[in-house]
Amino acid sequence: MESAEFILDAQALVIRAKGEARIVAQPLPCLSDDYILVRTTAVAINPTDWKHLDQVNVGHTAGCRLGFDYAGIVVALGSAVKTGTLSVGDRVYGFCHGGRKQDGTFGEYLTAKALLQRRIPSNLSDIQAASLGCNLLAVCQGLYQRLGIPLPSAERCPDISVTKSQPLLIYGGTTASGLLGIQFAKLSGCFPIVVTCSPDHNDYVYSLGANLCVDYHQRDCARQIQQFLSSKKIALELAWDCIGSAHSARVCAQVLDHNGFNMENGMKGIRHGHGPLYASLMPVPLNLLQRINGAIENAGRCFGYTAFGEEFLKDGVVVPASQEDLEYAANFMSLAQDLLAHGRIIPIRIDVNRGGSGLPGVMNGIDEARRGKVRAVKLVYTMDDCGQ
Asked: Start and end of every Enoyl reductase (ER) domain (predicted)?
């Protein structure tokens, strides 16, 4: 059995300065009581990786490790990790709070909060599992905590012909979060699921469960959505913005119902007496949305770092620990594990080792994401060659 006892140093990708990361040898991360130590087998790229690297403004992230998604093998358990939940030798996947001194998945070894990590289902490879963690967390917070759609059943699909279905807009349907979100929304009984994406990816997006794809490049994108909803007499009450730009927020606000769900107008909705809800992967002030649509009741942000249940520093501001977010995320990861194991949720398309494997490949992948070269796939890198 593998042991970390004799490992002194390991390679990791570390921020050196704004826009600059280097592969360095450093001591293994300290193993906290409620964490596990993992030998990394694969990692995936997320937009937050290059943003952490490029948006260093006061130097507080210099020396920090990068990386959020991973798969690997458990080599040690913290003293507080409950027996039977995870064991040394388990294949695991999940997510870490990258961008901190001790955390970050881009390395030969990593530490991860045990409560949020799960065994890899036998029907998934490490490469597939590495693509999931960060985007599962986005779905968890965006669709379920912020928008409040019902969690899917682990056993069966909802019958939308006999239940009150919830219309949903997912703006940015070919982001990794959007592609997983479409699948979860379908299992939760959302109908219709309206998605914005490039026409090049329509077939893929429809195959995952979307009911209408609209080209976000078109100037009349919002009008097309409105016309579809009007033709079906549907009041759109929920929008999940996987882009979080001024343009995407504006489109979402335009197409969300403006009428306060007055059923006398003949529009079908299920949030009677409540205004529409908006959630985004990026912060969007509610007052900006309400300038376009005064009926919007709330604008929630998917702020994934709160899922760790630990206080942290963000842009110079201390964000308090949230036990509620930790417990919700832990329960959601267990549900997702069951859905993945039974093939009801499938990993999105993966591009493996684009630009090379190991940490050198990861550096190339970060640059690909920075330049906007990643569409409808997740970049995953195997860690069999971590050196420079």
From this structure: 19-340
The predicted model gives 31-49 an average pLDDT of 97
Out of 305, 335, 361, a domain closes at 305
Residue 161 · residue 139 · CB < 8 Å: no
- Cα–Cα dist 181/313, whole Å: 28
Q: Which residues contact 213 (CB under 8 A, 6 or more apart)?
A: 173, 195, 196, 197, 199, 202, 205, 206
Q: Which residues contact 203 (CB under 8 A, 6 or more apart)?
A: none
Q: Does the pLDDT at position 208 exceed 70?
A: yes
Residue 77 belongs to some domain of the structure: yes
- Both structure tokens of 87: 């064991």
In tens, the pLDDT along 69-96 reads: 999 999 999 999 987 889 999 999 999 9
Q: Could you tell me if 115 and 147 lie in one domain?
A: no
The answer to whether residues 23 and 13 touch, using CB atoms and an 8 Å cutoff, is yes
Structure confidence by residue, pLDDT tens digits, 320-360: 999 999 999 999 999 999 999 999 999 999 999 999 999 99
Instruction: Please identify which residue in the block is written with the tokens 């300038």.
Output: 291
Q: Say if residue 357 is in the same domain as residue 301.
A: no
Return the amino acid letter for 108.
E
Least confident of 256-265, 296-305, 324-333: 256-265
Same domain, 14 and 88: yes
pLDDT over 60 at 146, yes or no? yes
Mean pLDDT on 260-266:
48
Name the residue range of residue 283's domain: 137-305
142 lies in the same domain as 127 = no
- Count the neighbouring beta carbons within 10 Å of the beta carbon of residue 63: 13
Is residue 215 predicted with pLDDT exceeding 90?
yes
Other CB atoms within a 10 A radius of the CB of residue 118 amount to: 25
State the CB neighbour count (10 A cutoff) for residue 228.
17
